[in-house]
Design a protein that fits this description.
Length: 263
């Protein structure tokens, strides 16, 4: 379809359907957009509105093919899932960091029902995810994600994307970095509470009549919360850096494959 040409109604519906599949894949898993705190009707309305507005623009881009086919639908779903699943690693990193901190806070047995995944998750894991969502909204990272999604139609033209095996392998390797990032985020709290535990143990050796078990948990909890409160000032920069890295990865995943024949 030549650039700048107008599309007919059937072509518009085909283009809107393909855009809807791509945006839906992102909304289903990306941070904030996938939260069940957002009503399902609101998310559906957002996807429809975004698809309606983007369809006439992206259908006229070079190499775009606004034609419904199984390969085209599969390609658009792959692009959306590349964004959604890659950025979902941010929530997993926050959840794992909360689990590490919860063990040191003696909250390992305190679980809540996570409304996002409908499974039991640690208390601090939920708290870390909520604070991460606040950082995403406060820093405007949700708008940056939408802008990147709109730009993706140039890197991966509409209806002409083929997912390469190397892209899936790159996503799997990136998932391993979630554990390292979680340890980095929880390291100050874990180190401080460990030092408190060692100090109380030494006091217990020096004074056997000291109620060590009665002192360890309150001191670890108060020290951990005090340090966590001070560390919150570093959270925006940390989360923004991880979000930017994951977003760059998602853009590279869709830019790597070569369009299918006829694109």
């Amino acid at each position: 379809m030549p650039e700048g040409s107008e599309i007919a109604w059937p072509g518009f519906l085909a283009a809107m359907t393909l855009v809807l599949v791509r945006v839906s894949g992102m909304v289903a898993f990306a941070p904030f957009f996938s939260s069940t705190a957002l009503p399902a009707r609101a998310r559906a309305a957002f996807v429809l509105a975004a698809s309606y507005l983007l369809a006439p623009l992206v259908a006229t881009l070079p190499r775009a093919r606004a034609e419904l086919s199984f390969s085209a639908l599969l390609g658009e779903l792959a692009v959306g899932l590349s964004y959604g699943l890659t950025l979902a690693l941010l929530n997993e990193m926050l959840l794992f960091a909360g689990q590490l901190a919860g063990l040191q806070f003696s909250f390992s047995m305190v679980n809540l029902l996570d409304p996002t995944s409908s499974i039991q998750t640690p208390l601090l894991g939920d708290m870390f995810q909520l604070m991460g969502t606040l950082v995403v909204l406060g820093a405007g990272l949700d708008r940056i994600l939408l802008a990147s999604m709109a730009r993706s139609f140039r890197a991966a033209p509409l209806g002409a994307f083929a997912l390469a095996p190397d892209s899936a392998l790159a996503m799997v390797r990136t998932a391993g970095g979630v554990f390292l990032a979680a340890v980095e985020l929880a390291a100050p709290v874990v180190a401080a509470t460990l030092l408190v535990e060692v100090a109380v143990a030494l006091l217990g050796k020096l004074s056997p009549q000291l109620p060590v078990m009665a002192l360890t948990v309150p001191l670890k909890t108060m020290t951990g919360f005090a340090l966590l409160t001070g560390a919150l000032a570093l959270w925006p920069r940390f989360i923004e850096a991880r979000f930017a890295g994951l977003l760059d990865l998602a853009e590279r995943l869709i830019a790597a494959p070569i369009p299918t024949a006829g694109g």
